[in-house]
Please model this.
Amino acid sequence: QVQLVETGGGLVQAGGSLRLSCAASGRTFSRYTMGWFRQAPGKEREFVAAITRSGGNTYYADSVKGRFTASRDNAKNTVYLQMNSLKPEDTAVYYCGAKLYVSSWPPNRDEYDYWGQGTQVTVSS
Model:
């Protein structure tokens, strides 16, 4: 069983930065591919970023590429999402997910085994 808790969300002006953290409770964190997703009101949850088990490879949605950076520290059971040059359209609840067995890269949204409860990010203009 893996429990995930996202922190670091808040209100920020356009052009600003936030760093989200996702802390995991579990004995096998380093075995999991991790992903970041977001969901705005009235829209489906969409892919943001994914990172491999050792952190050696990352993948980003076109909408955030060059602005967001995913990283992880397996010794701390934590994955991060550094968000720079934020735009109002980045406003959403941000979720982290964990996937043990990966059959595709990046994993599809419906493949993730565990999800956190999310943290709200609001970007004002």
About this structure: DSSP finds no helices and eleven strands in the chain. The CA atoms of residues 8 and 20 lie 5 Å apart. The longest strand covers residues 18-25. The radius of gyration is 13 Å.
